[in-house]
Amino acid sequence: MSSSLTTSQPSQSFMNPRSTPLTIRHPPFTYLHLTLLASSSPTAPSQPLDILTARTHLTAALQQFLGLTGTAIPVDFLKIEGRDVWVRVPREDGAAVVSAVSGWVGSGGVGGVGGEDGTVGWRVLGWGDWLSAVVAGGGRELFGAG
After folding, report:
1. Of 90, 95, 92, 108, which is closest to residue 36 (Cα–Cα)?
2. What is the pLDDT of residues 62-97, one digit of tens each?
3. Which of 29, 52, 60, 113 gives 20 to 30 Å between its CA and that of 76?
C-alpha cells in the first residue's frame, strides 16, 4: 500500500489580495465648532456653558433664521468645554445652521450667560464634513500663521 500525501496549493486570491479603494464623497454629517460670546458687565462672573443653555441659544438662532423649519433640524451636541461647543448636524442643513448661528444676537440672562441685560451670540470657529478637521483646526498653526 502506498500512501500519497497531497498538499493543497494556496489559493490565488490568498497570495495576491486585491485592494478595493473606497471614497466617501458625501458624508452624512457636518460638524461645527462654535463659541458663545457674551457682552456683560466686567463685574459679572463668567459661568461655564451647560447643555441646556447651549441648546436654548442654538434653537433660538435656528428659529429666528429659519422659523419652524429651523427648530426641526436635528442637532447632536458632541462636546461642551467652557464656552466652546462641538455639534453635528445633517450635511444638507450645515450651511443653513452656519448662517443662522453666525448672524444671531440674542438676549442674555439664561443660565447666567450674558448677564441680566447683556446680549449673546455665536461665533463659528470651524465647520466641515470631517470631525477630525474641525477639532484639529485648519492647520494654519503648523506654518506659523495661527
Report:
1. 108
2. 999 999 999 999 999 999 999 999 999 999 999 999
3. 113
Who contacts 112 (Cβ-Cβ below 8 Å, separation ≥6)? 45, 47
* 19/13 Cα distance (integer angstroms): 11
Q: What is the DSSP letter of 143?
A: G
Closest CA to 78 of 132, 122, 145, 117: 132
Task: Find, among 136, 113, 106, 146, the residue nearest to 31 by Cα.
Answer: 136
d(CA 88, CA 27): 12
pTM given for the model: 0.73
